[in-house]
Structure formats: structure tokens, C-alpha cells
Design goal:
The chain has about 150 residues and is of the alpha+beta class. The longest helix is centred in the C-terminal third of the chain and has 17 residues, at about 130-145. Strands 1, 2, 3, 4, 5, 6 and 7 form a 7-stranded mixed beta sheet that branches. The chain has helices spanning about 45-60, 120-125, 130-145; strands at about 5-20, 20-30, 35, 40, 65-80, 85-100, 110-115. The chain is built from 3 helices and 7 strands, in the order ββββαβββαα. It has a single domain (about 5-145), classed as Nucleoside Triphosphate Pyrophosphohydrolase, CATH 3.90.79.10. The protein is globular and about 50 Å long.
């Protein structure tokens, strides 16, 4: 009996605080959906290294403090790239990232647009419920850190 393949990715929930307001960075992937930056590990790369690199590659953001805990996890099933008749289980682990310089430079090959959004704006913009749950969990953690 074969088990379903698992695809793993790592990402960042980027947060910027200014004048008492908290903003979340959302990106619009070329596939059209709004979510947080994420991607696959390169050989020998750790989870946080991958998350930091993907944030830098997709948004140009370098000045960020990543927190190893808590880790936010998103699990879903998607169509396999290699064979549209197959599905793949996907797990994405996200780290909370406090951004110190909010200037964004998009990677046009993968990202169409971006928005620094308040919590309410982000809830309305995010495409998938699983990503919306990540936003809610991150917002709860941030409230505890105030």
C-alpha cells in the first residue's frame, strides 16, 4: 500500500508595527491567490533558513526578526504538478517575522502584488480559509506579546 506523498514548504507571517497599528504582509501569487510568503527548502537548508530566504526572494525584505516559536502550520491537499490526476498532501510551517523595514521589492516571476494590511483587511483579502486561520492564530500571539 502506497501512502500519499507529502510536500513540505516553509514561510513567514510578516508583521510590521507602526504608530500602534499592526500590519500583515500578504502577497498575491501568480496563481492569483493571496497568502503569506512561502516556498520549498533547498538542499541542506533548515526550516527558518528557507522561510527567511523565501521572504527575501519574494518580497526583497531582509530586515526581519524571525521567531522559532510558535510555529504555525497549514495542512491541505493539492493537485500534483507532475501528474494532475494525483493529489499531494502539503504541509507548510510558518514563522512569525517582525519586519523592521517595510519596503517591498517583488519577485515578478512568482508574485503579482502585495499589500500591508490591517487584521480586518487581511481577513477579507486572504483567499483560503487555512491561511485565514494562520492570520487569526498569529494575531492572538501578537496580542499576548503586547
Amino acid at each position: 500500500m502506497s501512502s500519499q506523498p507529502i510536500e513540505r514548504s516553509f514561510g513567514v507571517i510578516p508583521v510590521y508595527r507602526k504608530d500602534g497599528q499592526t500590519y500583515f504582509l500578504l502577497i498575491r501569487h501568480n496563481s492569483g491567490h493571496w497568502a503569506f510568503p512561502k516556498g520549498h527548502a533547498e538542499p541542506g537548508e533548515g526550516e527558518m533558513e528557507t522561510a527567511r530566504r523565501e521572504l527575501r526572494e519574494e518580497t526583497g525584505i531582509r530586515d526581519v526578526t524571525l521567531y522559532p516559536e510558535p510555529v504555525f502550520e497549514e495542512n491541505y491537499t493539492k493537485t500534483a504538478w507532475s501528474d494532475p490526476r494525483q493529489t499531494v498532501a502539503k504541509t507548510v510551517r510558518y514563522f512569525l517575522g517582525i519586519v523592521h523595514d517595510p519596503r517591498v521589492r517583488l519577485q515578478a516571476a512568482e508574485v503579482q502584488d502585495y499589500k500591508w494590511a490591517t487584521y480586518d483587511e487581511a481577513r477579507a483579502i486572504i483567499t483560503y480559509d487555512a491561511s485565514r486561520r494562520l492570520l487569526e492564530e498569529a494575531a492572538q500571539v501578537l496580542e499576548l506579546q503586547r
